[in-house]
Amino acid sequence: MPAARDPGPGHRQRIPLNHWLSHIMKLVIATNNRNKIIEIQDKFEDVPGLELVPLGRYPDPPEIVEDGETFRDNAEKKARGIAAFTGHLSMADDSGLVIDALDGRPGVYSARYAGESATDEDRNRTVLDEMRGVPPAQRAARFVCVIAICGPDGRCVFTEGECGGVIAEEIKGTRGFGYDPIFFLPGRGMTMAELPLEEKNRISHRAKALEKARDLLMRMEHNGDLKA
Length: 228
Ligand code: ITT
Prior knowledge:
Bound molecules: inosine 5'-triphosphate
CATH architecture: Alpha-Beta Complex
CATH topology: Maf protein
Oligomer: single chain
Order of helices and strands: HEHEHEHEEEEHH
Distance between the termini: 36 Å
Number of helices: 6
């Protein structure tokens, strides 16, 4: 029988991602956004054998600089960094608002639009100012969410979700977070911030990406890998 080959320096052992789930049964939620955590818990609470672990349970996590050019880059950076730090399967969400009339802004800059120390309200007012005078037919926008699930060996899978709407003329509603009060849903006749949270959790970009992520985790095959 031929001797086992030395994989050499730099070789990373490829362990199926389902190894981390089936043996450790922990999924670290790599986010500091409390609202995202609530939406994620709501979607994943019935996945058998899965323990969701908030990032806050780990002291001094590394700061992940979100300087990627795409939602996917940033989601991967966050999930990969936290999986390496915790040694557990980790999931991150990168999301934002994409407005056609603003050439896709705020996009990947959604969290920092209007400056580092700005509030949600500052960001909403900035967008409304930029959209002033844009006619109703040109106010189309969408929320985008990309989820990355990474193992400590650095391998990742991704899911995505989108939710379409239009930018409202004014801030309305107190539920949800971020840009919800200026994101008008024509089919519902109200903004995302006026919808009950259970309903947002059925139709939102994050809900769609989370449902696909949930399916991935539940569909894991015995000897296989996560399949996107
Ligand atoms: P983490 O990076 O720690 O997960 P974050 O809030 O910084 O938290 P992102 O970098 O993904 O998250 O930025 C997303 C921003 O996009 C968020 O701060 C909101 O301004 C906006 N956003 C994302 N999802 C949203 C939603 O469901 N409703 C309203 N605004 C949303």
